[in-house]
Design a protein that fits this description.
Elements (H helix, E strand, L loop, with lengths): L14 H4 L2 H16 L4 H17 L8 H21 L3 H6 L4 E6 L2 E4 H26 L3 H10 L4 H30 L10 H32 L19 H21 L12
Antiparallel strand pairs: 1-2
Amino acid sequence: MAASTVLNYLPRKSVVHELTGTSKLAFFLLFTFASMITYDTRVLIILMLSSFAIFKISNIRIREVRFMMTFMLVFLFLNNLFIFLFNPDQGTEIYGTRTVLFHLFWRYDVTAEQMFYMLNISLKYFVALPVAILFIAATNPSEFAASLNKIGVSYRIGYAVSIALRYIPDIQRDFHNISQAQQARGVELGKKEKLLNRLKNSVSILMPLIMSSLARIDTISNAMELRGFGKNQKKRTWYMQRPFRRNDWLAIAFGAALLVMSLVITFWDGNRFFNPFV
């Protein structure tokens, strides 16, 4: 079942899992900001290698997050395709030179500058996604809610996020069960069926899935209301909250160091874009 999940907490024995939710959230924000502000290829490569190394030591296998990885590659391909279709000279405008590699048709020339710009866009995906997936897969939802509350987010919002994350595997399980039931009734959803027919048949899964989801939401909301959740309460304690340890401080320091490195290298010459064409 681990390999069939989309986004779910995957407990492991690793340095990453032993960190508190607050330190993982702080590192995630620092790392994400460091990757967002730069288009410097050198910085992005360093961040990508750091991202891959962190994923490696988490003991989470790629096959367990295969769906999200595949989704990222498809989305990355479409993103680069539309960037090229809508503005094939974006790289030329950024780097100030034009080196035509070959001509396709009409106004579409493949230039080295455009390819280099799209390479940086791709690197950003490979930098951010492993850490984003790892943050969700290596953080207990209750601990994540506690970490949000610790940095100042309302505990009501934190608890809502926690329930949403816990609800993801429930939706996956319901979808699988309903799909199996529909196939037992003769509704074909396998790969042998044509894609259009599979899409049409998938609609028969949506209504039972939506109704079961609404029923579960109603049950949870009624239970919380009966227990007086949030009534005349400004603060609350958290069972999953843990004190900081040495590795937590080291993780935050590492994230801060990557952010400082990104800022210094990126804006050293006053330009966010590393230009190898000058």
